[in-house]
Amino acid sequence: MTKQTNTIVVFDIDGVIRDVGGSYRRALADTVEHFTDQAYRPTPVDIDNLKSEGIWNNDWEASQEFIYRYLETQGQNRAQLQLDYEIIVTYFQTRYRGTDSENWNGYICNEPLLAQPSYFQQLTQSGICWGFFSGATRGSATYVLEKRLGLQSPVLIAMEDAPGKPDPTGLFATISVLENGLDQKPTVVYVGDTVADMYTVEKARNLDNSRTWLAVGVLPPHVQETAPRRDAYAETLIQAGANIVLSNVQELTFKQIKELQRK
């Protein structure tokens, strides 16, 4: 017998469900290095700083922006540069997915998982509805959720399904599927690892204040290597609207969710 908590939890994927420090972020750095003729490779801190601006959730767009900014430091005019976005995306995908479109052989194959199937089973047993809203492509998201984690057709709104964060359209779409049949508007918890994720909750709250919204920040593994960097990143998420910041998504237990709702 499960308890009905009237709570929905929606998860981001990258940096929350899987560690993308050696995959998406590595592919981003490879791409920038390639299109700057090996002159510039953004560091993990560079990437965090760009993403802290809150509008570079899409790593393809972030790659292009890094290239633009580097070329501007070399005296070139952005308006006159003829960067081909599709070529940038194609190169990025050869690094991330790999060179075989049928059997992926890129960085995606080696992403460490940050959650286990049992965690989602525990949420279900506690009466919590859950799903995913991610800026990852549907293929990439499905690969980790179904092939790696073994989840059975989870609710998922991916890149192709909604505008990029911090636009909350995809979050609303996820909620619409999950709350089907519920008698009253449930509390919504959105779990993410970036400023854009926290901004998404804020924008959703501004559009619909008839329910309770909770923003949960999760520290991606690459920022936990030193205490100062971990603390600075956590503070950035709090400043962006996080109600709480966790070191791992699985710390968001039924008990923790109930405590957040009481605050």
Brief write-up:
The protein has 263 residues and is an alpha/beta fold.
Folded structure, characterized:
The structure is a single chain. The chain is an alpha/beta fold and 263 residues long. The protein has ten helices and six strands, in the order βαααααβαβαβαβαβα. The protein has helices spanning 24-35, 44-51, 59-73, 85-96, 117-125, 138-148, 169-178, 195-207, 227-239, 254-262; strands at residues 7-11, 129-133, 156-157, 187-192, 213-218, 244-246. It has a six-stranded parallel β-sheet, sandwiched between helices. α6 (138-148) links the parallel β2 and β3 (156-157). α1 packs across α4 (85-96). The protein starts with 6 loop residues before the first strand and ends with a helix. The model has no long low-confidence stretch (mean pLDDT 95).
For the biggest sheet, the summary is: 6 strands, parallel
| SS field, number of helical segments | 10
Task: Summarize model confidence as the mean pLDDT.
Answer: 95
What proportion of the residues form beta strands (DSSP E)?
Answer: 5-15%
Unreliable stretches covering 5 or more consecutive residues: none
Q: State the helicity in percent bands.
A: 40-55%
Shape descriptor reads globular
> Secondary-structure element order, as H and E?
EHHHHHEHEHEHEHEH
Widest β-sheet, arrangement of strands: 3-2-1-4-5-6
First and last CA, distance = 27 Å
Please provide the count of β strands: 6
Radius of gyration: 19 Å
Helix and strand content put the structural class at alpha/beta
